[in-house]
Specification:
This protein is mostly beta strands. 5% of the residues lie in helices and 38% in strands. The chain has 4 helices and 31 strands. Strands 25-26-27-28-1-31-30-29 form an 8-stranded mixed β-sheet, with no helix packed on it. Strands 10, 11, 12, 14, 18 and 19 form a 6-stranded mixed β-sheet that branches. Strands 6-7-8-9-13 form a 5-stranded mixed β-sheet. The two termini are 18 Å apart.
């Protein structure tokens, strides 16, 4: 992997935390506009160098940062434009709904303990009262010469915890024309209810939604499991992967007559992972439900499985704790040994991984993977055909301001784990923190956009800058 240097060109600054960066052509227009969705509920677009408001749904968003010192993973998480947006004005939102705050799925924080089996096999009970919030996926329309309006609700999802809701969670597949929803495992740590491996649970999956089917059904119930959905809603859904911890969207790269799909799975303690796949068996939710009712699992082994919670990237999921005998050392115990053995062969292996601790001089210690995008442009030839990714902030010595990382990797033809390389940037953030919170691209993947924020707190406003990555 060769060294690559790029420049960061500021496009707009002093915006709230950007969760989605993507382009679309507005009806009646002739050029792509860059759309920016913020976590607090604003959607802007940049046209001819000026920033304009497209939609403001802040009153619809749950109150963010009310606990935990301002850090929050809820809010406006997904924005996607219909492939025919120019003609039909349809677009889609995923956000956490105002007024739905619950007490949470567990009365207190519980960490898995390999020596205490009851902490490894927890159940989510009393779901209608013990939950954190409700997420919704909605269809909106931009009428001719009018303001955006909500048309209908596609899904209402009850979430057990506040975190792991996904980000940049809605994207249309150029392969199938369907809306792709990437859901996190429900939150907390270590997926305490093992939702990501349970075929009936909506959490921890990659799901396709056929937005052209059963459009008459406009108010689905609030659910957590596929079998709780009305049949017309089930018939719009297919599942293409499970074993997800938390995903920052999905990226598609055309390769001859097929598409390579890339997703980045955020890690727990050790490693951040990027996966890719081309061929996959999409399983209709109606078939999943039928298999569940018939207690048959034979047909369901065709799922793409990222392995979580049994596997964190290339490693069996471990518990890290201090050693009482030698305080300077850490003890690592395989938390879910039986699950790790079960999925050791049936899971998808990552394309590349980077680690939370990495002593190599040309690498970095990561924090959380925040974006993955295929780059097909030619302005930065060294990156053409590669997969670019961002990490929130590299591990540095305490007292130094946080700085995000831009890096890239490529696909190996032998399907083995590939290396990655840090992309050097020229921009001087000085003494300010610069968390790399989002990565986006335009319609033909020839331009990359980077969202940077000066704080980890969503309640610290107007600290965001959008950059274009240029040679």
């Amino acid at each position: 992997m060769g060294k690559v240097k790029v420049r960061l060109l500021p496009i707009v600054s002093r915006i709230n935390l950007p969760t989605v960066l993507k382009t679309a052509i507005l009806p009646g227009d002739s050029k792509e506009a860059l759309f920016i969705a913020t976590q607090v509920g604003e959607i802007f677009y940049i046209r001819d160098g000026s920033l304009r408001t497209f939609l403001d749904i802040r009153p619809r968003i749950i109150k963010l940062g009310a606990s935990g010192g301002g850090y929050d993973e809820r809010g406006l998480l997904g924005l996607a434009f219909h492939p025919e947006f120019y003609y039909n004005g349809l677009f889609y939102l995923h956000y956490s709904v105002a007024g739905t705050q619950g007490p949470g799925a567990l009365p207190e924080s519980i960490s898995p303990n390999p020596c205490d089996p009851k902490t490894l096999n927890l159940k989510w009970i009393n779901r209608e009262t013990q939950y954190d919030h409700i997420d919704t996926v909605e269809e909106w329309i931009l009428p001719t010469n009018g303001q955006p309006q909500k048309r209908r609700t596609l899904l209402n999802l009850r979430r057990p915890f506040s975190n792991h809701n996904g980000v940049n969670s809605l994207n249309f597949s150029p392969e199938t024309g369907k809306l792709v929803l990437t859901t996190g495992d429900g939150g907390s740590g270590y997926d305490p209810f093992n939702l990501s491996q349970n075929d009936m649970e909506i959490a921890g999956k990659i799901i396709e939604i056929d937005v052209n089917k059963h459009t008459f059904f406009r108010n689905p119930p609030v659910v957590t499991r596929f079998n709780e959905l009305p049949v017309p809603i089930q018939e719009t859904l297919t599942v293409i992967a499970k074993g997800v911890r938390n995903i920052s969207g999905i990226s598609f790269q055309r390769f001859y007559n097929q598409y390579i799909k890339y997703v980045g799975n955020v890690g727990q303690d050790l490693v951040e992972s990027i996966f890719s796949f081309t061929q996959n068996k999409r399983i209709p939710v109606t078939q999943l439900v039928q298999a569940f009712l018939m207690k048959s699992e034979a047909e369901l082994e065709r799922f793409i499985n990222f392995g979580w919670r049994a596997w964190e990237g290339v490693f069996p999921t471990q518990i890290i704790r201090g050693c009482s005998a030698i305080p300077t050392l850490e003890e690592k115990t395989i938390a879910y040994y039986d699950e790790a053995v079960k999925f050791s062969v049936r899971r998808l292996h990552p394309v590349t991984c980077y680690f939370h601790e990495d002593p190599r001089p040309d690498k970095f210690g990561g924090t959380a993977l925040t974006g993955v995008q295929a780059y097909m442009g030619n302005r930065i030839p060294a990156l053409t055909g590669s997969v670019v990714f961002t990490d929130l902030a590299r591990k540095e010595e305490s007292g130094t301001p946080a700085k995000g990382v831009l890096a890239y990797t490529r696909i190996r033809t032998d399907c083995k784990l590939n290396d990655f390389s840090v992309i050097e940037t020229d921009y001087d953030f000085g003494a300010r923190a610069a968390y790399y919170v989002s990565l986006g691209t335009n319609l033909n993947q020839s331009t990359l956009y980077l969202g940077v924020y000066g704080s980890m707190k969503v309640t610290d406003f107007n600290q965001g800058t959008i950059f274009e990555i240029i040679p």
